[in-house]
Write a structure and sequence with these properties.
Layout: H1 2-14, E1 73-78, E2 85-89, E3 95-99, E4 103-104, E5 109-114, E6 118-126, E7 132-140
Antiparallel strand pairs: 1-2, 2-3, 4-5, 5-6, 6-7
């Protein structure tokens, strides 16, 4: 019984709130500040250093905008005075007709040229550092069997 009374008295002394507690953050690291860079987010800017509007991700309008370009195969090209057309096939075998300025691929690619043997696509995006970038990729028409 005495052990219980001693423990209760000790606990009462520990819980006494008559001493004020203060914390001095001077010369201490702020745990909520980023280690690299600044704590204010930077807005995207173009190459001339001027501020640009926040870039929004384009919502896919067709199934060929939801797959990577490596999963598409160029199957046919039609050269016409009214404008060249091309047919691409996805991994399931379904074909899609594209023309200049058609969006294609999951990285907001756009058909820029349709040549007799390939499709030129320019992909717009933002690199790892937040700067706008564009990459030119192409899908070539497969060679006929037996041709090197």
């Amino acid at each position: 019984m005495e052990d219980g009374l001693l423990a209760a008295a000790k606990l009462k002394r520990l819980l006494r709130l008559d001493t004020a507690f203060s914390y001095d953050a001077k010369d201490k690291i702020d745990p909520f500040k980023p280690v690299f860079g600044s704590d204010t987010p930077e807005s995207p800017s173009d190459r001339r250093g001027q501020e640009t509007a926040e870039r929004k991700k384009r919502i896919p309008a067709s199934p060929i905008e939801m797959v990577d370009l490596s999963q598409l195969k160029l199957t046919a090209v039609v050269l016409a005075p009214s404008g060249n057309l091309a047919m691409v096939e996805d991994a399931t075998g379904k074909g899609y007709i594209v023309k200049k300025d058609t969006y294609i691929g999951n990285r907001e690619g756009r058909v820029t040229k349709i040549l007799p043997d390939r499709l030129i696509i320019t992909e717009q995006g933002i690199d790892d550092l937040g700067k706008p970038m564009s990459e030119v990729r192409e899908i070539q028409l497969p060679k006929p069997p037996g041709e090197i």
